[in-house]
Amino acid sequence: MTPQPHPRRAMPGLAAATALAAALPLAAQSPDPEAMIARIEAAQPDRPGDELAAMTMDELMEHFHVPGMSVAVIHDFDIHWARGYGTADVETGAAVDTETMFQAASMSKPVAAMGSLRAVQDGLFGLDDDVNDILTSWRLDGGAFTAADPVTPRTLLSHISGLGDAFGFPGYDPDAPLPSVVQILEGHELSNVGPIFMERRPWEAFEYSGGGVTLQQQALEDARGRPFADVLRTDVLQPLGMTRSSFEQPISPANDRNAARAHDDEGRSRGPKWHVYPEMAAAGLWTTASDLARFLVEVQRSVRGESNRVLDRAHAREMITPVGVGDFAVGFSVSKRGQGWYFDHGGSNWGFRGTMAAHTVKGYGMAILTNADQGGALAGEVGRRIQDAYAWDSLTEPVPRGYAPPVQREAVAVDRGVLARYVGTYRLNAELDVVVTLGDDGLLVTPTGQPTLPLFAESETEFFLRAANAQITFVLTANGEVEGLILHQGGRDNRAEKIG
């Protein structure tokens, strides 16, 4: 028997607003693209006293040590302009143009979600079907957590499946042997992350889960009987005209000829040109800002009933209608800013950062891609300028759920005797320990099955990572003994007890 859909609470007023959108007139005269570009690239005189506002675009990129960036702006349900900035690869000096491909990182997730929704529309499975009824190559053991409600495509793609992840996917060196998706799900020795695991019942709470999206990747591949990258190429990318986009991992030599290199937080080459992500649905899309903008416009127009190149109106609405727990729909985060409702997502891969956002009814949006670890902060400022210039109904910087642009943090010196107190093993959950060691240059942190990363001190108890947007606070007892740590990541605080 096919499980019945779980009751869901739609966002108040969102359905009505979407239905009315078709009646909204477009602007009588579109602003001049070159004038808007010049305004966004210049210093911002309307924000006195703001250090970033006083900088030009070139100065911002230098300030944040970001070699290259690609930007596309949507106005009146169309791409108003797109432009490349800076350098795609500091080793070759190649310039960024509008055809330069970047890693979309977690912005892969909503694009992949459209592929699953297309399979739903085609009748291969239902959004509320048990994922184990779709999978043929693997099986999720939900145990007692799934006794009442199964894990389904809807819960996986809106991050309420009950699966728990503490860290994102670090990717693989191009020369490293790659695990299959099933091996990743199982936590095989080839995988650099632990196995996926149930942490709570489905529908109980929101927890951002790249592992859950990877499980849905395998389900879609099993249902179609074809490789995931091929399915997304034929079902989503080609119909939308996303000709400079691919889920192929690693990137093909032909596409790599105009692909950006990964850079660190100082804008230096990270060694290998990029990392490889077999977790394609969660982090594996290579794309351009213009192609992401085409994707956003298609969602906007499909929701209005004006386009159905991939999805009809009913299935497109699933992408912008929150499921009732958390603020995610199927693929996108949905949020209110000022008087407007937006759907958005951000991305953070090894050496790549980006963001995209679009209004649910008013026909504007943006996509920003960068090739360095401080690119999120740059994208935040550029996004603010785009909103100001086009008078969006929200004048706040876009910060998508699941990704927060990193705050600029300054490291301070801490006595090695203080650092030595923190050495030990900390247990986050039954599947994941965090081991803290002391190296020549300071503390190092190693999550179970993941690479060792340096920690940088902000104070004697507060530390941050530069390789990921995460912070750690060590917790002390009243007499100064170390009893645990708190991992701050993705808007959540996860406490770990010191066990050794």
Number of DSSP strand runs: 18
CATH topology of the largest domain: Beta-lactamase
The second-level CATH architecture of the largest domain is: 3-Layer(aba) Sandwich
Q: DSSP helix count? A: 14
Explained architecture:
- This protein is α+β, with helices and mostly antiparallel strands.
- Helices cover about 25% and strands about 20% of the residues.
- It has two domains: about 15-25 and about 100-390, Beta-lactamase, CATH 3.40.710; about 415-500, Lipocalin (Beta Barrel), CATH 2.40.128.50.
- The chain is built from 14 helices and 18 strands.
- The chain has a nine-stranded antiparallel beta sheet.
- Strand 1 and strand 2 form a beta hairpin.
Show the helix and strand layout.
Blueprint: H1 14-21, H2 33-41, H3 57-63, E1 68-74, E2 79-89, E3 94-95, E4 102-103, H4 108-121, H5 153-157, H6 181-186, H7 210-224, H8 228-237, H9 253-256, H10 280-283, E5 286-287, H11 289-303, H12 313-317, E6 333-337, E7 340-349, E8 352-359, E9 365-370, H13 375-390, H14 416-420, E10 424-429, E11 432-439, E12 442-447, E13 453-454, E14 456-457, E15 462-464, E16 470-476, E17 482-489, E18 492-498
Antiparallel strand pairs: 1-2, 1-9, 2-3, 4-5, 6-7, 7-8, 8-9, 10-11, 10-18, 11-12, 12-13, 14-15, 15-16, 16-17, 17-18
Helix pairs in contact: 2-13, 4-7, 4-8
Domain Beta-lactamase-related: 56-389
Domain Peptidase S12 Pab87-related C-terminal: 409-488
Organism: Gaopeijia maritima
